[in-house]
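User: I'm putting together notes for a lab meeting next week and I want to include a structural view of one of the chains we've been expressing. I don't have a solved structure, so I'd like a prediction I can at least talk through. The sequence is below, exactly as it appears in our construct file.
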Amino acid sequence: MVARKLAAADIGMPHHQTAPAEGGVFALSSHARAKEALDFGLSTNAPGFNIFVLGADRSGRMTETLAYLQREMASRPLPPDWLYLNNFRRPHRPRPVSVPGGSGRRFRDAVAALIPAVRAALQRAFEDEAHQAALQAPGRRLQEEVARRIAEVQKEAEAAGLAIVQTQGGPAVAPAQQADAEDGKAKSLSADEMAKLQSDAQAIATKLAEVTRWATGQHQELALHAQAVSQQIADEAIQPLVGKLMDEFADQAGLRRWLEEMRVDILDNIQRFATQRPDGAPPLEPPERRYAVNLYVDHGDNTGPQVVLEPNPTYENLFGRFEYRQEGMRLETDFSMLRAGALHRANGGVLVLRADALAAQPMSWIFLKGALRDREIQMEDLRQQVGLPIAGAPRPKPIPLNLKVVLVGAPQWFYTYFAADPDFQTHFRIKADIDSDMPATPANLSVFAGMMQTLAKRYGAADLDAGAISEILAQASRLAGDATRITSRFELLEDVVAEAHVASQSSGVLTAECIERAIAQRRIRNARIEDQMHERIADGTILIETAGAVVGQVNGLTVSDTGDHAFGAPSRVTARASAGREGVINIERHVAMGGPIQQKGALILQGFLSGMFAQSIPMSFTCSITFEQNYGGVEGDSASLAETVAVISALSGLPARQDIAITGSMNQHGQAQIVGGVLHKVEGFYRACLDRPAGLTGAQGVIVPATNAKTIVVGDDLRQAVADGRFSLWTVEHIDEALELLLGRPVGKAGADGVYPPDSIFGLVSARLTTFNEAIASTFRAVR
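Assistant: Thanks for the context. Below is the predicted structure for the 784-residue chain, given as structure tokens.
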């Protein structure tokens, strides 16, 4: 097997040609799985079938999901409005009432208009002369009867020589002489006369007390009668008003029942409608507050169920809040100051939450699970839990919950929820998974092009010409890292279209040149770190050779991602071998600068060497490997091929070519495996060679695994360099092919005796390992 050289046609940007078609993002095959999941989730009302939409950043997982949900909800019936009404028997438990969507506003306004009408009707009724006479006549009759009875007692008292006088304690009996004496002194009486006078006075006092008790009872009965008459007068006044409202909402049993309770409460609290209160009397709750209608959820301006996105899912934003008013040194609240949360507004529709935002609110997650479990929204006043003095704080009755919750986030959030909370799968049983890329089929290409065309027009451009569409689709393949696929992260290309329109300063048709210019300008803005690194490579600050050959030294390739820009660059991998027993020493791992995957690659290298050279004798060597001038750590196994070449070079003593860089993973059998970021790595070494004083020599190039061949979607300048023979790309299926290309001789094949040809690469390695083994053995014998 030998390394295969790639042709320029194998590595350039693909030239997709297609006609734009309508369809939207969910017509792409990358979103087909998610669309089916959303459709299924929305089709069932069974508990627990809520949805988690997961996809890569900038794949439209939020914007397009919202748009899709809104389209789906548009054809569904309008959910009910919700009112909170005063519970007159239990004021701390206000009552939720549902009414047909859009009618809650009408009921609220009707009740608000009813209160002043009731006040005016009561005022007219109680100012009516007939009603006043009906109220006053019993009182006058009672006064006359009391006066008559006291007069009778007065006559008896006079006949007995006694008189009834008014004192601070009420009517009292006194001797007539004392009552008539100007000096207040009674005439002198004998003992018999005094005894008889006292007996008569006691009898008269008893009768007077009976009259007083009778009068008191009559006054109480009169008050009850007056109250009944007042209620009758009031009922006659307000019944037509309340009855009209009950007739208007005759089809709403809950509203009719509350209106009847309201009518009874008004009759029991007529004094609340008085324009003035007696001096010193405590203030009463005004009827405008007591009989208010809290329009909690209003769908009057909507045509269907709502899709509510709550960006900050705190408890109050989800479950509602209590508002307060300041009364002296304390806060007060009541049912009219309850405010709905996102769960209430989305009830009957869909609530959309960002997974990361919900994860930042653990209390909200706990209460949300409870609401989904119990299928009701229970509103709690969190201020009461911290002990703040709040007067009249209600505990409203819960509202039934019937909605679909859609969580949206990156894949890692789905697996975080799944692993961290066993209840997650109970409540979110549907996974709507968006693929990161998709095949570059005609259907996908057409829909993708149509989306870009729509976006261009949205930003003010007249259209995209065929060249611009082809360039955008080529960039979509580059972002996918595969010439046969395109990325689903269409929002990244949306940015390019927007920037192309801004840069063109025209509302005309965008061309390929506009797209290319926007991409070039973006690179200039974002590539500061890349440019600085290559400047240091060019001036020798970072030691990289692009010519000659060195023992134990190979140009590996790395990728850096700064968030808005990814780029590749060469990194020198070196190995130094000596006699010993430690095998491969990964310096990065020993100083905690290498991650577990990078260490795995080093151990695989150790396994490969053991399988090749330690079948008959112990493999006695120590070989340290490292990434030179690496101060930020390293992770991944994509340098496995480079590390193997460096170690084999160090063990064999054969110099490795410095004009060829290599990337790729490897298994213990030496087979090359696909790695990521290859297009950036190839471009990074190409730029490093280009920046050298000698420029491209025609001998330079990069080795990649054969499975990476379709992932090399490089720019036109590099493709042209390959076409002109100034730069090369090779693919390998096994480490042997890379070794022969870099070390310049055959690896050698072991004979029946397991011995490699002495002048082959593996023959030289075997000889060196044998020498190391003998040196260690002789040293051990000498020590013994």
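A couple of points you could mention at the meeting. The two ends are 48 Å apart (CA to CA). The mean pLDDT is 89.

User: Perfect, that's what I needed.
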